């Protein structure tokens, strides 16, 4: 059970790190496109960081005492936990929204390229494969 608890924390950190690397890639590729888009990318980066810090803090403090997170299932230990389902559902909803946002960001820039419509559609299709 301690392994599962540690995995929850590492999951939050790894997802945030992956999203940060995607956003840094976008900053590198689309850096000269527009200052507005660069600001949007940095705001998204900050919201990703805040999301990571908040949910990691919540996960670390979800049960009192700390060990109740992995000992509470047997009914022999005293303690309490916050509503874990609410935490999981809210974290999942925010992650799905952020994933969709990360897919939409490059598509918005693709629309403004001086390419034929077919080329734009092909690039958008490639980004759309990220949905799968």
UniProtKB/TrEMBL annotation:
GO CC annotations on file: membrane
Top-level division of the source organism's lineage: Eukaryota
Transmembrane helix found in the keyword field: yes
Rhodopsin domain segment(s): 3-131
The protein's name in its UniProt record: CFEM domain-containing protein
TM spans (from-to): 9-27, 92-115
Family, per entry: Belongs to the SAT4 family.
Keywords from the named record: Membrane, Transmembrane, Transmembrane helix
Major location category of this protein: membrane
Subcellular location: Membrane
Membrane topology category: Multi-pass membrane protein
